[in-house]
Design brief:
The complex is a heterodimer of chains A (414) and B (238).
Chain A lengths: L2 H14 L1 H7 L1 H30 L4 E6 L9 H6 L5 H8 L7 E10 L3 E3 L2 E3 L2 E5 L1 H8 L5 E2 L4 H5 L4 E4 L1 H8 L8 E4 L2 E8 L5 E2 L2 E2 L3 E5 H9 L6 E6 L5 H16 L9 E5 H44 L1 H9 L4 H40 L11 H28 L2 H6 L2
Parallel strand pairs in A: 5-12, 7-9
Antiparallel strand pairs in A: 1-13, 1-14, 2-5, 2-13, 3-4, 3-8, 6-9, 7-12, 8-9, 10-11
Helix pairs in contact in A: 1-13, 3-11, 3-13, 3-14, 5-10, 11-13, 11-14, 13-14
Chain B lengths: L3 E10 L6 E11 L4 E5 L6 H8 L7 E6 L9 H10 L1 E4 L11 H10 L5 H14 L15 H13 L5 E5 L7 H16 L4 E5 L3 H4 L4 E6 L2 E7 L6 H5 L1
Parallel strand pairs in B: 3-7, 3-8, 5-6, 6-7
Antiparallel strand pairs in B: 1-2, 1-4, 8-9
Helix pairs in contact in B: 3-4, 3-5, 4-5
Classes of the chains: A alpha+beta (414), B alpha/beta (238).
The structure holds adenosine-5'-triphosphate and magnesium ion (MG).
The site of magnesium ion (MG) has 4 residues of chain B, from helix 1.
């Protein structure tokens, strides 16, 4: 039997039962839509996160206090742990301990707001070293200067601020030399960064950097660090440097068993692997859910095809009586179920694209994320193939029921 | 060798306790080009016989040869092919596809014939014209009269140019005038195209258009004779 004819006949019969066909493929539509959205949003999220991670640079190594968090709920623990102290930084600075270290800077996070005159703003305040910030993000003040070693040693009350902080507090006028207030302590603005936006999980435009010594003594009253940032000489020696760092800190902390570590080390590569792992697990889990929905959808299609075979018993009998072979009838119904599910796949792809676009629109326009929508061609191909395959698999049984019919009994069917 | 050979044919419906013998010990031969009317009261086994002759059903015992071969000499697909190419069937209940046009209904046997799709329309249109339904070609069966539906069914049986045409009560549901126009078409097929025609009817007047009548009663052949004065359908129309 001619394929064009089969296709047309199947299509006509599906059109004749429009609403039933539509309801039948709903499961497939939802499944394929889900695949599209998952793949598209997943890709977007992954490239967003990977983009942020790459912002910290391949040479950067972050040492955090506490145990390696097993999940987001563990995160808080690292903020309250006080295991990283000045002696650790002193040990890391020794050439014999960490030979490939080129720069090391402790960091503390200062919660709170900043104000100037009547204006108040809630930025991200870091006690850090300005030169580490500049080196790590390759970002140097557009106006003024960074504070240096002297300011850190003297616990000077100086700050370098992001472009948005400047705009919020000073509007169009100059910020340099002005005194801003953090927790009732005045800091003199000596530098302003150029606009850069979101990099490495924080918005550079919203930062206020003050010497970490000043922050610890006057703003926080603590003597431990929230993070220690290390720059290795080049990306090739990062792995080796991580080992050196771990050995050094274990020694200063008197730890012999790595399981007892009260700190952990994060690198760009490690984070990338971690994210890829998380995304992999998430994708596998969601794929399983989608697979279940497609199976359920397929059973729906099978059910309706069985109804259709029964309804069209006389037609089947007639076709066989005038010369259709079992194979002809089988193909006719298989083509019908494949068209049905493939149609569901196409609708699913269209809907999935719309939802993905909508998601990326909302994320970029309302959440200000650096989100990029990429049309997932792989998911499109996969979606059509999978939906057609579902039609084929779940169409076989009804189609065989149709092909098996005895023509004369089928013709007699009321 | 006769085109159709039937020997001691029996058909018993059902199995176990409730069995209905529909045909008993039937024997006859039909030559190519004959025009035969099968007669008998309702339930005498006429349709059952026609289905067996058309390879749509199997006898319980006895022998049926079509062109020298029994149904068991063919594979399933070959039987479908024989039904498609060598036989035309007009069913007692038209059996047209309800949502398809006249043209699409008539085309149906071509779909399974191996003939190129490009030729289907022309071939179907030709037979539709020959049964005089060209004006109704785009109509669906629900928009046709009983006589017109019967003509569509005949056109469909003819479209593949089969040698043998089986008709189950082609005039059974028609008034006498449309019955005559249908019989005119059938008689022409016999006279002018020398097709083999096996027609079921329970009306004596319709049987008289044939050349030979076989009478069934209770599943048995009670008479098998030549028609003495064959009626010509065309004269009545004029
Ligand atoms: N599928 C079946 N199962 C059981 N009995 C059947 C079946 N088909 C037909 N019969 C019986 O076989 C006998 C012959 O039926 P058949 O249909 O051949 O009669 P017919 O001569 O064509 O009658 P009519 O003129 O009413 O069409 C009847 O007694 C009928 O009840
Ligand atoms: Mg009958």
């Amino acid at each position: 039997m001619n394929f064009r004819y089969t296709f047309k006949t199947s299509f006509t019969s599906l059109i004749a039962n429009k609403s039933r066909s539509a309801l039948t493929i709903l499961g497939i539509v939802i499944g394929i839509t889900a695949i599209m959205v998952i793949v598209s949003v997943g890709n977007g999220a992954e490239s967003l996160i990977l983009g942020e991670i790459s912002g910290m640079g391949a040479q950067s190594i972050v040492i955090r206090p506490g145990k390696q968090p097993k999940g987001p709920s563990d995160m808080a623990g690292t903020l309250y742990s006080d295991s990283l102290k000045p002696r650790d930084v002193a040990a890391l600075k020794k050439k014999s301990n960490v030979p490939y270290l080129v720069n090391v800077a402790p960091a503390v996070i200062v919660p709170g707001s900043v104000s100037y005159g009547g204006e108040t703003y809630i930025p991200m305040i870091f006690g850090w070293t300005a030169n580490m910030m500049s080196e790590m993000l390759n970002l140097y003040p557009a106006e003024g200067i960074n504070f240096g070693e002297n300011a850190i040693r003297d616990k000077a009350s100086v700050a370098v601020i992001g472009s948005k902080v400047k705009k919020e507090l000073f509007g169009g006028s100059s910020a340099l030399g002005k005194k801003i207030k953090i927790k009732n302590k005045k800091f003199r603005v000596i530098g302003v960064y150029p606009p850069r936006g979101q990099v490495a999980f924080f918005n550079v435009d919203e930062v206020v950097i003050v010497p970490y010594t000043t922050a610890m003594t006057y703003l926080l009253g603590i003597s431990h660090y929230n993070e220690i940032i290390v720059r290795a000489k080049n990306p090739e020696v990062v792995a080796r440097t991580v080992n050196d760092i771990e050995a050094t800190i274990r020694e200063t902390h008197g730890i012999t068993d790595p399981a007892d570590d009260d700190f952990f080390v994060v690198t760009q590569k490690g984070m990338v692997n971690q994210i890829k792992n998380i995304m992999g697990v998430l994708t596998a889990f969601l794929s399983a859910v989608v697979a279940i929905s497609l199976v359920v959808g397929g059973i729906g299609v099978m059910n309706i095809m069985l109804v259709s075979v029964t309804e069209r018993t006389r037609e089947i009998g007639l076709r066989k009586a005038i010369g259709a072979t079992d194979g002809d009838i089988l193909r006719q119904f298989l083509v019908e179920s494949v068209i049905l599910t493939a149609l569901g796949g196409i609708i699913g792809i269209a809907l999935g694209t719309v939802f993905s676009l909508l998601t990326s629109f909302i994320l970029t326009h309302y959440l200000d994320l650096n989100w990029s929508f990429s049309f997932p061609f792989l998911a499109v191909v996969l979606g059509i193939a999978v939906s057609a395959f579902v039609g084929l698999i779940f169409g076989i049984y009804p189609a065989r029921q149709a092909a098996k019919k005895n023509p004369i009994e089928a013709l007699r069917y009321e | 060798m006769a085109l159709i050979e039937v020997k001691n044919l029996e058909k018993i419906y059902g199995d176990g306790d409730v069995t209905t013998p529909a045909l008993r010990d039937i024997s006859f031969n039909i030559e190519s080009g004959e025009f035969i009317a099968v007669m008998g009261p309702s339930g005498s086994g006429k349709s059952t016989l026609l289905h067996i002759l058309g390879f749509l059903d199997r006898q319980t015992s006895g022998v049926y040869r079509f062109g020298g071969k029994t149904i068991d000499d063919y594979s399933k697909d070959e039987i479908a092919h024989v039904r498609n190419k060598k036989m035309g069937f007009v069913f007692q209940a038209f059996n047209l596809l309800p949502r398809a046009t006249v043209l699409e209904n008539v085309k149906l046997p071509l779909v399974y014939s191996g003939i190129k799709q490009a030729e289907w329309d022309a071939m179907a249109t030709d037979v539709i014209k020959s049964v005089g339904l060209l004006k109704r070609i785009k109509h669906e069966p629900s928009q046709l009269s009983g006589g017109e539906r019967q003509k569509v069914a005949i056109a469909r049986a003819l479209v593949n140019n089969p040698n043998v045409i089986f008709l189950d009560e082609p005039t059974g549901n028609l008034d006498s005038k449309s019955g005559r126009t249908v019989m005119e078409i059938i008689q022409e097929l016999s006279e002018e195209e020398k097709r083999t025609i096996i027609l079921i009817t329970h009306e004596e007047s319709t049987a008289e258009y044939a050349k030979r009548t076989i009478h069934l009663f209770d599943g048995r052949v009670v008479s098998d004779e030549k028609v003495k004065y064959q009626r010509a359908a065309r004269d009545f129309v004029k």
